[in-house]
Amino acid sequence: QVQLVESGGGLVQPGGSLRLSCAASGFAFRFYTMYWYRQAPGNQRELVAKITRSGEATYIDAVKARFTISRDNSKNTVSLEMNSLTVEDTAVYYCNTFAELQNFWGQGTQVTVSS
Q1: H/E element holding 112?
Q2: What's the pLDDT tens digit per position in 37-74?
Q3: Nearest CA to 109 among 86, 96, 92?
Q4: 102 C-beta neighbours (distance < 10 Å), count
């Protein structure tokens, strides 16, 4: 079955960096666009970045020039490098894909930016 397992979250000071990873299994990873979403307390889940199967990346304006999404099709992983973090980046971050006509989510990883 499809599984998405995120890792790499944690507590970081403002201005710091974190790298999130998502290990995917159970589907033909290389053929599908992968997404990172986040959900802050009291807010709706929002799309942060996506990367197509060919490696084309797009970002929301709030993270452009600070976050970088990448994928390794040989390892079935998608990563999110996050730099210059601010308190507004505090959220649970989720890996997502729409594969085989279904929407799949990981369990999420908490990112907390605080001094």
Answers
A1: strand 109-113
A2: 999 999 999 999 999 999 999 999 999 999 999 999 99
A3: 92
A4: 9
pLDDT, position 100: 83
pLDDT digits (tens, 9 = 90+) for 72-111: 999 999 999 999 999 999 999 999 999 888 999 999 999 9
Task: Please list the helix, strand and coil fractions of the chain in percent, rounded to the nearest 5, in that order.
Answer: 5, 55, 40
Q: What is the dihedral of CA 94, 97, 102, 103, to 10 degrees?
A: 20
What CA–CA distance (Å, rounded) separates 76 from 60?
A: 24
Amino acid type, 14 = P
Asked if residues 100 and 9 have their Cβ atoms less than 8 Å apart, the reply is no
